[in-house]
Amino acid sequence: MAADALSRVFSALADPTRRDMVARLTLADATVNELAEPYDVTVQAVSKHLKVLEDAGLVSRSRQAQRRPVHLEAEVFDLMTKWIERYRRQAEERYRRLDDVLRSMPGTVEPTPPIPSNKPIQTGKPR
Amino acid sequence: MTITSTRETEIVPDPTVPLIRITREFDAPPEKIFRAHTDPELVVQWLGPRDLTMTIDHYDCRTGGSYRYLHSRDGEEYGFNGCFHEVRPAELIVQTFTFEGFPDGVALEKLVFEDLGNGRTRLVATSLCDSFEERDAMIASGMETGIVEGYQRLDELLAG
Question: Could you tell me the CATH number of the domain that includes residue B111?
Fold first, then answer.
């Protein structure tokens, strides 16, 4: 299902080695050996990482004999990045509003939560 | 995946459990930020999305208390509610979160106020959802196109 697919992409990208591999594949296709080079791990370990990325639909491997370069499915990667970035931006906007609220507050505040009132409170109509 | 810019909000979807971690630093001491999370008169000023009207039905941010608020636009209302499980001034808020459109679902939210000294605070907010699907739906719900369209687009990409 789609939601599972999304989860697979998220977890595939959650690993720092795989994230690094993806970052390098944004520059150019590479073989497993080329991808393994900078890491202190076996080619087998890199192949395992690639399998995870492949299952998530993030990379594909051509059937070209011998070389079989790994290719980044940039559209899938971009979509994920956009989803997370948009969510992040919403959180950032929210916290910028909180920054403003904090600036408008007096220097010292009561440390305990206030006793709540039962009246509904609405945006733009504070107090 | 971590997306960071200087001091801006950082988001990390956890790979092993359906959790999102949101981290942000503030130029204010923990007491103030805590107050802005517990006083409904202040909460209403920042919590809701800008393009929606937020109405707080009740907001009793004390251990054992509860809350309910609505986001509305053009006559459409979206309700949210939950309980405050543990509230410790300027330190910690543990609460549940339910979208009333899907009342069986509940996320467990934890807000930790870390005192950085010099009047600064790091706020670490984690949401633990029922499933990876719900967690990811929460992230994807931010898309303008909406979750369904977003998933359709993903399906197309993965099928292609």
Answer: 3.30.530.20
pTM comes to 0.72
Residues B98 and B160 both lie in one domain: no
Same domain, yes or no: B114 and B102: yes
Each residue of B10-68: pLDDT tens digit?
888 777 788 989 999 999 999 999 999 999 999 998 988 777 889 999 999 999 999 99
The set of residues, in sequence order, having a beta carbon less than 8 Å from that of A17 and lying 6+ positions away, is A39, A41, A49
Contact B127/B98 with Cβ under 8 angstroms? Answer: no
Residue among A5, A89, A109 whose CB faces B158 most closely: A5
Its ipTM equals: 0.79
Partner A contacted by B53 (CB < 8 A): yes
Q: Does A114 touch chain B (CB under 8 A)?
A: yes
* Domains observed in chain A: 2-76 (1.10.10.10)
